[in-house]
Write a structure and sequence with these properties.
Layout (H helix, E strand, L loop, with lengths): L28 H33 L3 H29 L1 H20 L7 H30 L2 H30 L5 H4 L1 H14 L13 H19 L1 H4 L4 H23 L13 H30 L5 H29 L1 H22 L5 H27 L7 H41 L4 H14 L14 H7 L2 H30 L9 H24 L1
Helix pairs in contact: 1-2, 1-4, 1-5, 1-7, 1-11, 2-3, 2-4, 2-8, 2-15, 3-4, 3-7, 4-15, 5-12, 5-14, 8-10, 8-15, 11-12, 11-14, 11-15, 11-18, 12-13, 12-14, 13-14, 13-18, 15-16, 15-18
């Protein structure tokens, strides 16, 4: 190629690749980046915004704690189940088209979530349309990231991706604040707010002249079904363990059945010519280490938003807005450290940032857990900030390093892999920690009620009911009768709130352990960095394949 080289935009001058239908018109990088940030902002905000509104939703719709966890998990579960499919569809049909399709599915589902009717069908309604929201997000996000990669020159790509992930993290932090403000009006507004954001994203996408190069390959439908069913069954079994019991055959049938389907999926992918996921990318030790770090860190990152929010509103008696400010401690640390992590990535690679981030996160979550029973946000903020700093420091370097190791510059596919890992971990974390919290709360409340003179058998049943409904603010509706059970409960509300805080310690210590395992996974990373020449060669080969396919399609 001599001194003429591709910048990853399709030609040496940054023009769109042949066959994209937009020859001679270079994409507007600023508008494209803004459009994709608006598109993904809804996805990241919705990971946190619902957590703040959870008690208000429970109270109005009459959901149980486990029912609300199913609503939260439906979104994350659909994200995890369909992200790999979304990344593959983006590569096959074109990144711009899939971003638009995903955004439309997401915003329509948001409107329907905000329009949920009250009554017995409310929980099913929310679960269904939160799941379709997750499907829309799974289509839009990998395609949006692939657009950023395709329109930004190679020499600027590292900084652009770091900026993308930092801003995405900042938008995640906006969720609790926005949720607290909107919930004070109506919790339904947390879904309706996505409509104007989607309109802006779609308009900017149309104006940005984004190329729509694609890989017209066969879609691995059996693989898509296997991975979605495997992840879904596995998480469902863990999530329902608190209701079905760990000795229930149904619990283990779902957990083991899901793992079996995922094993069949891996075998299928290795044997098919055009797999949903090119598993050979895991031969790269660095890529495998990146994904392991993302998995174990996300076991803490996504669940902490839900459990910290509910803890603040129950044990600290905070309003939704105050709970949002409580979560802000975590995101202040996250925001500052994320910028630092991007700089470390550019100068020294991903491994130093991941090691420091996992170590800080582990310490932060452990100290935060230790302080939860003090029932004072003032005493907890330094540790919440430290935990957030650890996550912020590692998230962008691990994600960017993994994307840079794409095979044949198939950025949509590799993003699908990393985000599947992250969202599966998030759904799994909420399911596991939700089960832990329910059991720990029930056990401690039972001890409290027994100490108040309630018979052990009766205390056990009441404790289970309290554990299921505690996020619905039971102190707002204390029992009014004069029976011994009602008298014991009325006299134990302060103790029950402290019991709930102590039960949350198990959850937060579990998050600390997850970050400790993530630190061990960083030891697997060889410390190598993706060179510009290697990435450029992969991009050039990928573009030539895309051009041949596009020219053939145009001829037909």
């Amino acid at each position: 190629m001599g001194r003429t080289r591709s910048d990853g935009n399709g030609g040496p001058d940054g023009s769109a690749p042949r066959g994209s239908g937009r020859q001679g018109k270079a994409p507007n990088q600023t508008l494209a980046l803004a459009a994709m940030l608006f598109a993904v902002s809804m996805i990241f905000v919705d990971q946190t915004i619902v957590s703040i509104a959870a008690p208000s939703i429970i109270e109005e719709l009459g959901l149980s704690s486990s029912g609300m966890q199913r609503v939260v998990n439906a979104y994350l579960l659909a994200l995890a189940a369909f992200f790999a499919l979304g990344g593959r569809l983006a590569d096959i049909f074109g990144h711009r088209k899939v971003v638009v399709a995903g955004t439309l599915v997401f915003v329509l589902s948001s409107v329907l979530c905000g329009s949920v009717p009250t009554g017995s069908f409310a929980e099913s309604w929310l679960i269904i349309f939160r799941a379709t929201q997750g499907l829309g997000a799974a289509l839009a996000f990998p395609a949006a990231l692939a657009v950023v990669v395709s329109v930004v020159p190679l020499r600027q790509r590292g900084r652009a991706l770091a900026l993308f992930f930092v801003l995405a993290g900042a938008l995640t932090a906006l969720g609790p604040l926005l949720g607290g403000w909107l919930t004070s009006w109506t919790w339904r507004a947390i879904f309706w707010v996505n409509v104007p954001v989607a309109v802006v994203a779609l308009v900017l996408t149309a104006l940005a002249r984004i190329p729509d190069a694609r890989r017209p390959e066969r879609l691995d439908a059996p693989g898509a079904v296997l991975v979605a069913a495997g992840i879904g069954l596995n998480v469902l079994g863990i999530q329902q363990a608190s209701a079905w019991g760990w000795t229930s055959p149904a619990t283990w049938a779902c957990i083991i059945g899901g793992l079996v389907l995922l094993a069949i999926f891996c075998r299928h992918e290795l044997r098919t010519d055009e797999p949903l996921i090119k598993l050979r990318v895991f031969r790269d030790r660095a890529f495998t280490a990146d994904n392991l770090v993302l998995f174990f860190s996300t076991l803490a990152f996504v669940p902490v938003m839900f459990f910290a929010s509910v803890y603040a509103q129950i044990s600290l008696s905070s309003s939704p807005h105050q709970a949002a400010l409580y979560l802000l401690y975590f995101f202040l640390g996250f925001g500052f450290a994320a910028q630092w992590g991007g700089r470390i990535l550019d100068k020294r690679g991903a491994r130093p940032a991941m090691r420091l981030g996992t170590a800080l996160g582990c310490a932060g979550f452990a100290l935060w857990a230790w302080k939860l029973t003090d029932l004072s946000a003032h005493d907890q903020w330094p540790y919440a900030c430290l935990a957030g700093a650890g996550i912020g420091l590692l998230l962008s370097p691990a994600s960017t390093d993994a994307v840079n190791r794409a095979i044949g510059a198939s950025y949509g596919e590799v993003t699908g892999i990393t985000q599947t890992v992250r969202n599966y971990a998030g759904a799994l974390g909420i399911a596991v920690f939700g089960t832990v919290l329910t059991h720990a709360t029930a056990r401690r409340v039972e001890e409290t009620l027994t100490a108040k003179g309630l018979p052990e058998t009766e205390a056990r049943g009441v404790a289970h009911d309290v554990a299921e409904t505690i996020t619905g603010h039971p102190d707002d509706h204390p029992p009014t009768d004069d029976g011994p059970t009602a008298t014991a409960i009325r006299g134990s509300f302060e103790d029950i709130h402290r019991d709930f805080a102590a039960a949350n310690q198990w959850v937060f210590y579990g998050m600390a352990i997850a970050l400790g395992v993530a630190f061990l996974c960083t030891l697997l990373h060889p410390g190598t960095r993706v060179t510009g020449e290697a990435t450029e060669r992969e991009t050039e080969e990928s573009r030539e394949v895309q051009t041949r396919h596009s020219d053939a399609a145009s001829t037909l």
